[in-house]
């Protein structure tokens, strides 16, 4: 009996199916963010900064926000959301993050579909992006990265559509979305090079017209910005602090990058005697930075997915198209931004690779998609089960936290507000203790804290000490335990043994 020939979806059916996938991915992401919020630990250090910006913006406006942080757009959004919803600043930030993550993953799936790789399934891209640890690990963080990612992938989607349909509306929206991405993170400006890199080699009239359309807003913004800056500079008022922009421009300076590598290589040559020359030190340092960047990028893009893509590319499972070429340009620029950063700062947080890892995932997911389909069509059920088990484990690992909580910092700090002497001088050794005591306590360094515990005080007034004592900090534990100069008011610990103690230094204890 002959098999019926499948009838392809009509455009309406295809759009409806895509819409269902987008809504499902958006809703699932919101639920995951809600779950992360309900089991959240404590605010991250960057989150404290953004909340400070929000408070400054609400209390004093733009100038005060810029005084706290020189790229304050995300913090100002938190302040606006706080005023609009009456939620706390912290909860307003979590709400924004949840929305931005949902927009980012939905836009990712839309870009995946827009690249048009034959045989790929958008719903699978949605399942995979929701499983990535690099996203789920940061759902309970207050960071501006997700706003950056949301508008970066919207910009990519609009540029993909502009490259296919050449409508001025898409050209304008691509530039607007990228501008908003840059309002969160300045490195988004590197993607303004995409049209030039993509249209190089096109027929000259076509290239000129499309380059103009896809860069018109950028060019206008640059000209306007220069004019405003010069006019305000002529009056002695240059306006906002441009340190962040200047800093990123310096990262892209080959002279500065080489100067930094040369300086650090000289230090490395002195420390490692087996390096025979300064040139060897430069080679070791450069190779190490490149290896670090590669490892973090591939790890965050999931190494098994990358290996599958490499194998599938070798076997020519998929053919390239316009969308994949654009995606590779985005990947290349994202990696270039990371390399410029790491070569200038000699430091790389995994979080800085999120954009590049997700852009690379637009490529790798297509091969994973085809690979899973080949296993299913080939009847290799055991391997298919193992593959899905790996994806499930990856998802659970990112969603379920098994580490020791630092929630005692929040609960202990809030409790201290009700039980400790409000007239005494309050001192603490952890920024998040200061945050959760509404900045009631003064943050002190380790040396001063140990001096206080040893009886070396500049004054004789009573003091309240809120001290975070990690379980491995033997020096601090020894300075506190059995110390006749301190009185224990309250102490609480997590299951790993890290402790928050509230202590009193009586008057005359020096």
How much helix is in the residues?
55-70%
Count of separate DSSP helical elements? 22
* Helix-strand string: HHHHHHHHHHHHHHHHHHHEHEHEHEE
Strand order in space, largest sheet: 2-1-3-5-4
* Count of domains: 2
Category by helix and strand content: mainly alpha
The parts where pLDDT drops under 50 for at least 5 residues are: 234-240
Work out the oligomeric state of the chains in this entry: single chain
Please state roughly what percent of the residues sit in beta strands, choosing from under 5%, 5-15%, 15-25%, 25-35%, 35-45% or over 45%.
Answer: 5-15%
Task: Compute the number of strand runs.
Answer: 5
Features:
five-stranded mixed beta sheet; 5 strands; mainly alpha; 510 residues; 22 helices
Write the layout of secondary structure elements.
Elements lengths: L10 H28 L6 H16 L1 H7 L4 H13 L3 H26 L7 H10 L1 H4 L8 H21 L2 H17 L9 H6 L4 H31 L8 H9 L2 H18 L6 H23 L2 H12 L7 H24 L8 H24 L3 H19 L7 H13 L5 E4 L2 H6 L5 E2 L2 H8 L9 E7 L4 H7 L6 E7 L5 E7 L5
Helix pairs in contact: 1-5, 1-6, 2-3, 2-4, 4-5, 5-6, 5-8, 6-17, 8-9, 8-16, 9-11, 13-14, 13-16, 14-16, 15-17, 16-17
Structure description:
- With 510 residues, the chain is mostly helical.
- It folds into 2 domains: 12-41 and 88-399, no CATH class; 407-505.
- It is 67% helix and 5% strand.
- It is built from 22 helices and 5 strands.
- The chain has a 5-stranded mixed sheet with strand order 2-1-3-5-4.
- Strand 4 (487-493) and strand 5 form a beta hairpin.
- Helix 1 packs antiparallel against helix 5, helix 8 (145-165) packs antiparallel against helix 16 and helix 14 crosses helix 16 (322-345).
- The relative contact order is 0.08.
């Amino acid at each position: 009996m002959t098999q019926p020939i499948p009838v392809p979806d009509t455009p309406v059916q295809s759009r409806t199916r895509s819409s269902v996938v987008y809504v499902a991915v958006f809703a699932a992401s919101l639920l995951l963010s809600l779950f992360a919020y309900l089991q959240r630990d404590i605010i991250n250090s960057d989150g404290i900064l953004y909340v400070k910006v929000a408070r400054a913006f609400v209390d004093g406006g733009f100038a005060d926000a810029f005084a706290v942080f020189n790229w304050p757009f995300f913090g100002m959004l938190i302040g606006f959301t706080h005023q609009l919803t009456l939620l706390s600043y912290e909860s307003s930030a979590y709400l924004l993050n949840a929305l931005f993550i949902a927009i980012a993953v939905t836009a990712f799936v839309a870009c995946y579909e827009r690249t048009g790789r034959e045989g790929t399934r958008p719903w699978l891209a949605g399942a995979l992006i929701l499983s990535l640890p690099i996203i789920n690990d940061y759902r309970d963080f207050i960071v501006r990265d997700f706003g950056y990612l949301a508008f970066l992938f919207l910009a990519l989607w609009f540029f993909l559509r502009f490259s296919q349909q050449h409508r001025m509306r898409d050209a304008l929206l691509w530039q607007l979305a990228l501008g908003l991405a840059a309002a969160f993170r300045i490195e988004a400006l590197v993607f303004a090079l995409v049209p030039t890199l993509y249209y190089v080699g096109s027929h000259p009239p076509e290239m000129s017209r499309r380059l103009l359309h896809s860069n018109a807003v950028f060019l206008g913004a640059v000209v306007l910005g220069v004019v405003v800056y010069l006019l305000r500079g002529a009056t002695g008022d240059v306006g906002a602090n441009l340190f962040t922009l200047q800093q990123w421009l310096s990262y892209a300076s080959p002279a500065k990058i080489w100067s930094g590598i040369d300086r650090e290589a000289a230090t490395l040559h002195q420390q490692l005697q087996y390096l025979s020359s300064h040139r060897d030190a430069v080679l070791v340092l450069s190779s190490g930075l490149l290896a670090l960047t590669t490892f973090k990028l591939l790890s965050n893009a999931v190494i098994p997915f990358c290996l599958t893509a490499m194998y599938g590319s070798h076997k020519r499972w998929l053919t390239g198209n316009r969308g994949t070429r654009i995606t590779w340009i985005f990947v290349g620029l994202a990696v270039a931004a990371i390399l410029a950063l790491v070569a200038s700062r000699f430091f790389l947080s995994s979080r800085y690779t999120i954009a590049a890892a997700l852009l690379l995932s637009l490529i790798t997911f297509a091969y994973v998609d085809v690979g899973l389909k080949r296993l299913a069509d080939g009847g290799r059920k055991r391997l298919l089960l193992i593959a899905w088990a790996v994806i499930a484990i990856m998802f659970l690992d990112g969603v379920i936290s098994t580490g020791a909580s630092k929630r005692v910092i929040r609960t202990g700090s809030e409790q201290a507000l009700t039980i400790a002497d409000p007239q005494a001088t309050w001192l603490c050794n952890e920024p998040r203790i200061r945050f959760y005591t509404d900045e009631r306590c003064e943050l002190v360094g380790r040396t001063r804290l140990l001096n206080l515990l040893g009886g070396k005080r500049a004054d004789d007034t009573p003091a309240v000490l809120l001290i975070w004592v990690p379980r491995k900090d033997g020096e601090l534990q020894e300075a506190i335990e059995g110390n006749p100069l301190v009185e224990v008011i309250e102490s609480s610990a997590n299951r790993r043994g890290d402790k928050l103690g509230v202590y009193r230094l009586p008057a005359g204890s020096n």
